[in-house]
Specification:
The protein has 10 helices and 2 strands, in the order ββαααααααααα. By secondary structure, it is an all-alpha fold. It has 3 domains: 37 residues, no CATH class; 55 residues, no CATH class; 120 residues, no CATH class. It starts with a strand and ends with a helix.
Length: 220
Amino acid sequence: MKNCYKCNVKINSNISKCPLCNSKLEGSGKYESVFPIIPNVYVRHKFYLKLLLFISILGCLICAIINYLISNKISWSCFVVAGIISFWITLIVGIKQRNNFIRLLFAEAILILIASIIWDYFTGWHYWSITYVLPFLCMAYITTLFFLRIFLKNIFRDYIIYFYINSLIGLTPLYFLLKDLVLVKWPSVICINVSIFSILILATFNHKQMIREIERRLHI
């Protein structure tokens, strides 16, 4: 039995400090912990994380091999590797900070978009950033938030404004289409339609939540 002389209590546990005053306990003996051991998310989903890691590594290797066999150099496969690394960073940070996960996704999408445009500009401006990255990034984010809206309704209400902002960003390919700046039009066309559809869905089913969120942020 361990003793805390400050609180004058006896504790039958293997903890080293008093749960009342945090003082060091005195005494010895082998005890079982009175607190249950709760496995973290990494332990609970260990198999799936290992499987996902295996698929990620295998995907990187396959893309690199195909890229080398076709063009005798490593070029576009670097984007695949960068995307997979970005996915894992997002996953790990999202697990640790679940309450800020949607905000994290939005910030990451914006950073990837800005970095892609800068990269495209300084490598000769081949328009791949606005032809492929912009529409596919917006569609991926909208799709992710759509499923989060279904399964995480309570969390989604606090971040609905990010859904609206991203849907509006998804309409920007319309400008590049009208200016005839994109070489391949179908990604932009699909992105515009997905963005319009998401705005209509939000305006129809979530307009009250959006108004409340704007009032909360603007302190109206």
